[in-house]
Records
---
Amino acid sequence: MTCQKAQGFLGQGAVAVAETVDATKVRYAAADALKLLDGVATLVAAKGKRLEVFDLKTAKPDDAVLLAHLLGPTGNLRAPTARVGAVLVVGFGEEAYRRALG
């Protein structure tokens, strides 16, 4: 459901998506999820109405904290996950997407 909300939000703003990966077909476990952070300065994690922002350049948390925000209950990367420049957004929340795109 949240992936559909993310697609709808991006479609409203006419945002071009460079690459889409189907989370039901491609799995990202812990090591793969952490690799996604290479070159990322900010991690924005949305869960419901909660929004957490991590500055990975100046105050990078340990891997356990990062994985708690990157992985879902199945142990795979949470969807939707979007990279916008040096910002990685995990989960969907309009505020998270506005922050990454603005």
---
Amino acid sequence: MRPTLIPKMTISPITRPLRARVNMPGSKSHTNRALLVAALAEGTTTLRNALFSDDSYHFAQALIKLGFDIDLDPDAKTMIVNGLGGHIPNTKADLLIGNAGTAARFLTAMLTLGHGEYSLGGVKRMRQRPIIQLISALNRLGAQVEAPSGCPPVYIHADGLQGGRTPIRGDVSSQFLSGLLMVAPYAQEPVEIQVDGTLNSKPYIDLTLSVMADFSVEVHRDGYKFFSVTPQRYQALGGYPIESDASAASYFFAAAAVCGGWVEVANLSRDARQGDIAFLDVLENMGCIVTESDGAIRVEGPARLRGVDVDMSNISDTSMTLAAIAPFAESPTTIRGITSSRLKETDRVAATCAELRRLGVQVEERSNGMTIYPGKSLKAASIHTYDDHRIAMAFTLIGLRLPGIEIENPACVAKTFPDFFEVLEQLR
């Protein structure tokens, strides 16, 4: 699932305006939600344009280890899932899910529906990513889940999920709420969830609810503060299309912003369910021209790139994309609202600031974001990627303009986009 393991990759600049049309892989967020819901449904669902990456692979393999019948065809980009109506076949499993945060949160919630003993763990960084808020909520709903450190490994003593009412914090990870919502239909009693504080990444909750609705489950809600789910059953769909990945597309849209010319991403709409499609609004505010036609979105770079001041709490995965192109703007760029990014694959706020400084960029780091100043004296550097796919892909953009940029551990992009560098070459 990973590209060739080489220690460093040198990025060659592109010296002419771009004229390229590229295809993106399936959405990680859409694929993983559909995997879980299809496994809980009664009957067979074929996920089309599914993502085959490290994260989705860990998720699918965990389901197979739990006894689900799943046929994976990377060439056809299909996953055929034989759902068992809420039944988890195996009563014992030790699951290793790498650094797949989505899989960790969603599977922890799903396993409470089983009957048996389960454990879930991952790599070193996964053992540093908080999950105690989700566990506390599940236990209030009648589960028996433990995580002695507050992070994985997680131990589930499963005997079904009773239901009831629970609060959940909204400012750590929206995946906690998504996990609760997706398993709630299979609780024995209605589930009511009260969100405490501000909910980050609201579009991901919209995506969760839309996938649940696709599979015939209804959720009652009061905005983003209160959700109620009665006992229901997901219905298998036969064929189910997965959207192209809007987060992955952000790097190619941004390439037009820094190189000039235009880039088109096929099979993607501004009406996409994924919140990261809103990154196009940021690019428009920076002076880019965005158009849509024939099932594709085109971004054309401006003569001069403007800096912006933007709250990215709902699209934090694209904050590194913005940070990487900000040094090429003619005025400062301020990114706000991304405190939760410190709890991702790495501390993304600190890592992004450190690598920008390595390039000679003046940057001010704050708890919830950063301000990046125009790069008047950028210098070549070898970029530390912290085994974080988004750091690697974002800082590759700088190498499209600045000679001498090396990306360390480029294979880490396989977490969500194994073919990233191959698609990047199409820009040439």
---
Amino acid sequence: MTSQSNTATWVEQDQTQLHPLQHPSRHSNPLVIERAEGIYLYTSDGKKILDGMAGLWNVNIGYGSTELADVAREQMITLPFTSNFAGMTNVPASRLAEKLSGYAYPNLKTTLFTSGGSESNESAFKTALFYWQRMGQKNKLKIIARNSAYHGISMAATSATGISRYHTPFGPQVPGFLHIPAPNPHRYDGDIKAGETVGQAAARALEETILREGADTIAAFIAEPVQGVGGVIVPPDDYFPLIRAICDKYEVLFIADEVITGFGRTGEMFALNHWRVQPDILTFAKGITSGYIPLGGMQISDAIREAIWNAPEAESYMHGYTYSGHATACAVGLKNIEILEREHLVRNARTSGEILLEGLGTLTEFPQVDNARGKGLICAIEIVKDKTSRTPDMATTNALMSAAMQAGLRTRAVGNALAFSPPLTITAEEVETIVQTMGDVLVKWNSK
């Protein structure tokens, strides 16, 4: 039997799987992705789709790398896995940790490995609390996050997430998480004083929250440099320097969630470098292996490392995961970084991202497209009912996403925005294909 004739069987078998973000209306007739190459997906029934989302913001080096496959195979034969708990280690984990020491930001030299972004952010929260306990500031238990933030699906990560639909189906959230307005230049939902920029107003919201709650109760502030699931929100340039200064002033740890933006996505290897700012804790995942195998991690400052190292045994840092420092995953991560560097893919993300953003900007001629925004190869167009009211139009956003898929382009609806986050290997001509295809979809939509 051919793949096409098997599709119905595979779809039927898939009904025994509970998918992430499951709802029957979105999964009644799923595409069966059978293979992929470069920036393209191929379905079992013969469709070719330009993956404008690089999987889930993460297939940075593109599909079909035999180098990563060969490294994984060799490591699996040599040593696929062993416990990385204290008292044991393995060569790939040690080598990758050394590679990452000071790699993202000079002040972050120590890494805890995880299997993904949610675990990384859980680790960051627990580590922040551990640090302040060791410092004798036992009331520092609260975490400040932002509206429209996305930090993962586990309980604390969900509680940090500032999107209500991730909360309501599951009942009460973990206590101690607070939310403030995001620095959205297009839709700031806080108050702005006369003469303030959006960046200044959003930073002031952090300071006011710290003062209201009491600085002695705030453990950390967490932020994505560019908010992904919340709508591809790129902050104004004055925002993060102000945030860093406020965190320093009130002794609040700054956690940078670079799960999406890390490893080249924005045209810098790590996104806070756009603003010359360093966090106290960094979380990463996705792009470190380009999604070929699960791997994530958390990096910490020397001060936090020393608090962990110097704790008495009775108060040891009792945290970690079965797959922390997974040998095969770390071997793939090392090779993936080598490819990112060798192929100059961070530079390509910057130059191709400029072309993509400029092209998406031309789509604002359509009545539904309010604005185009982005940083490197993470961009979006915002969809509204009309440009006078600027009322968000989620229904049309979802419909346009489906229409684009039918036209051979995969994008993703994030609120009332359509996100574009293709592999960093994309060429200028392939970027033009994204823009042209989306333009054709909008032309057809407006001719109804």
